[in-house]
Design goal:
Elements: H1 6-12, E1 15-16, E2 23-28, H2 35-49, H3 54-77, E3 82-84, E4 91-97, E5 102-108, E6 113-115, H4 121-148, H5 152-173, H6 177-193, E7 212-214, E8 222-224, H7 250-261
Parallel strand pairs: 1-5
Antiparallel strand pairs: 2-4, 3-6, 4-5, 7-8
Helix pairs in contact: 2-3, 3-4, 3-5, 4-6, 5-6
C-alpha cells in the first residue's frame, strides 16, 4: 500500500508542522468548540477580509478548514496505509498575513497516525469517516452556525465544494482506469455509506448530483458548478460572483462569457 508523506500534504493543503512567525491569531482548534473562542476568531478574521458580517467570515473560515477534510480524503483516495491524525485536538489554528490576503494554516501538534485495516479497507474507511465527521467536523459546523445565526447548509457547502474539487483532481491525476475506479468506489462509500446522523442532518450532504455548465473560455467543454456560494460577493471589494456560483442564472453566465471575449 502507499503512504502519503506529511510533506506531500503540506504541499497541497493548508497544513504544517511549524509554528509560523507572522501570525495575528493562534488557537488550539479544539478550543473553537467554545462559543467565545469562535467569536474571537471571527471578529479577528472578518475585518481583515472586510467581511460584511460574521456569517461571511464563518463561511470563509470553513472554506479553509475544508482543506483539512480534503487532506483526509486525499490519503484515503491514494490507497494509503495510514491516515495522519488531523483531529481538532491535534491541530492549532494559525491566522497569518499573506502577501495579499490573510491566510490560515493548521499546525499538526504531534505526528501520529492511524493504520488502515488491510483486511477490510472499505469497512475501516467507513467507520473512520463516520467518526471524523461526527466528532470533529459536525460539532464545529454546528457551533459556527449557532454563533453567527446562519443555516448550516451554506457552511457545509464550502466543504462540499472542496471535496468534489478534490475528487476531480484525484481522478485527473490517477495513472490508470483501475485507480480511477478505486477512487470512485471510495467516494461512493463516503457519499452513500455514511449515515446522515454523522453530519447532524436528515441526509448525507455529500450525496448529490453534480451539475455541469459550459466552460467560460473553452466552448463545447463542461465544468462543474459549485454546490454552494462562497459568499465572495459579500466582501467589501469588487469580487462579484464566481462563474461557477449556483446563484447565477445561465443568462448571467452567458454575459460573463461574452465579456471574457471582449
Amino acid at each position: 500500500m502507499n503512504t502519503v508523506g506529511f510533506r506531500q500534504l503540506e504541499d497541497r493543503f493548508p497544513l504544517t508542522t511549524e509554528a509560523l512567525e507572522n501570525t495575528v491569531f493562534t488557537l488550539p482548534a479544539s478550543d473553537l468548540l467554545e462559543a467565545d473562542n469562535i467569536v474571537r476568531l471571527l471578529d479577528t478574521y472578518g475585518p481583515l477580509i472586510k467581511a460584511r458580517d460574521r456569517s461571511v467570515a464563518a463561511a470563509f473560515f470553513v472554506s479553509w478548514y475544508a482543506g483539512v477534510c480534503s487532506a483526509v480524503q486525499h490519503m484515503l483516495f491514494r490507497g494509503n496505509a495510514l491516515v495522519w491524525d488531523l483531529s481538532l485536538s491535534n491541530l492549532t489554528i494559525q491566522l497569518y498575513a499573506g502577501d495579499t490576503f490573510p491566510l490560515f494554516s493548521f499546525k499538526v501538534n504531534e505526528m501520529r497516525s492511524n493504520p488502515i485495516s488491510i483486511l477490510d479497507r472499505d469497512v475501516w474507511c467507513k467507520q473512520f469517516l463516520d467518526l471524523f465527521y461526527r466528532e470533529q467536523v459536525t460539532p464545529l459546523i454546528r457551533i459556527l452556525s449557532e454563533q453567527v445565526h446562519m443555516n448550516v447548509m451554506p457552511l457545509w457547502g464550502q466543504i462540499i465544494n472542496a471535496i468534489y474539487a478534490q475528487l476531480e483532481d484525484e481522478l485527473a491525476e490517477a495513472p490508470d482506469e483501475a485507480s480511477r475506479e478505486r477512487i470512485r468506489d471510495h467516494f461512493k462509500t463516503f457519499t452513500q455509506g455514511i449515515e446522515a446522523s454523522a453530519f447532524g442532518l436528515r441526509k448525507n450532504p455529500f450525496d448529490r448530483k453534480q451539475r455541469s455548465i459550459e466552460h467560460p473560455t473553452n466552448p463545447g467543454h463542461q465544468i462543474a458548478m459549485k454546490n454552494a456560494c462562497c459568499l465572495a460577493y459579500c466582501l467589501d471589494a469588487d469580487f462579484g460572483y464566481c462563474y461557477e456560483c449556483p446563484r447565477l442564472s445561465e443568462t448571467d453566465r452567458l454575459g460573463m462569457r461574452m465579456n471574457s471575449k471582449s
